[in-house]
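Dear V.,

Thank you for sending over the compound details. I've combined the ligand you provided, zinc ion, with the protein sequence from our construct and run the structure prediction for the complex. I'm sharing the raw inputs here so there's no ambiguity about protonation or stereochemistry in the SMILES, which I know was a concern on your side last time.
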Amino acid sequence: MRVICHYFSFDDVFQCSNGHLMCAGCFTHLLADARLRDEVSTCPNCRIEISKTSASRNLAVEKAVSELPSECQYCGKEFPRNSLERHEELLCEERITNCKFSRIGCPWRGPFHEETEHEVACVHPNRSGAEVMDALQEIDLKCEEEKRLYDCVFDLLSYEKITFNDLQMKPYRTDEFVHKLFYETSRFSAFNNQWVVKSRINNSQRDPTQSFNRNITYQVKLDHELILKTKTTYPLALHYLILRGPFGDMKVSSKIYKFDFTDQDNESPYVQLPLPDTAECNRLLAAKAINFRLIMFLASK
Ligand SMILES: [Zn+2]
Ligand SMILES: [Zn+2]
Ligand SMILES: [Zn+2]
Ligand SMILES: [Zn+2]
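Below is the predicted structure of the protein with zinc ion bound, written out as structure tokens.
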């Protein structure tokens, strides 16, 4: 099997015990793939077993790679890899910039060395208040959306019943779906009930190992198996939110979901775990377990 590297920019270099090299992105992808297939992860070159503990970093190669010349994506000139990022972000004359009047609607984007010349001639500072209203409204909309999230959080913080649990999701498999990988937490209690959180990888696909892009969806399930002293009155109108928590390192963004649990409907739909990208998803899959904090807000009747 040939491995085509999609990551390239990760700077750590790993090697199998026979010395075959791969970048950090490819290594994580390999571990995640093995987890999805329920196989032992092996080196793509020699098939020897490879894991987080058996693989080692190759510092000599890392150093050599960091000094290799790499091409700037804007000006095409070559720089040592370890200084390229700084060049592209701060120094390159050809890097793409916005006009400083973009906030009042100037759409100009161009190379840094043309920015000053453009801004001197830019017509936007001379437009009337009425003319820049559209641009301002667009910015307002974005801010309002963010504000709605915060308002929602503050509103929820006034609920009588709030609880959080620091949970760990572990992989498991069922016999019916040989190729599919699921994750599940152990049971935890909240609001006099027992719950679990379940998750799936690339929920819409039959075989997630066939696709390069990865996503995780999750659901909250009200577990009825336990007989409880307190009788639950339905529906349970629940808002919930997943955060990184004190034991996790997931780069998850804040998104609040809501579901009304009833005695007929005890599983919320699968919703997106808001992760930045496939690389982050693979990083979580490559780990043994996924740690997170679940905050639950219960509306009182
Ligand atoms: Zn790679
Ligand atoms: Zn090898
Ligand atoms: Zn450049
Ligand atoms: Zn402009």
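A first observation: The pocket of zinc ion (ligand 3) is lined by residues 72, 74-75, 77, 87, 92, 94 (CB under 6 Å).

Warm regards,
I. M.
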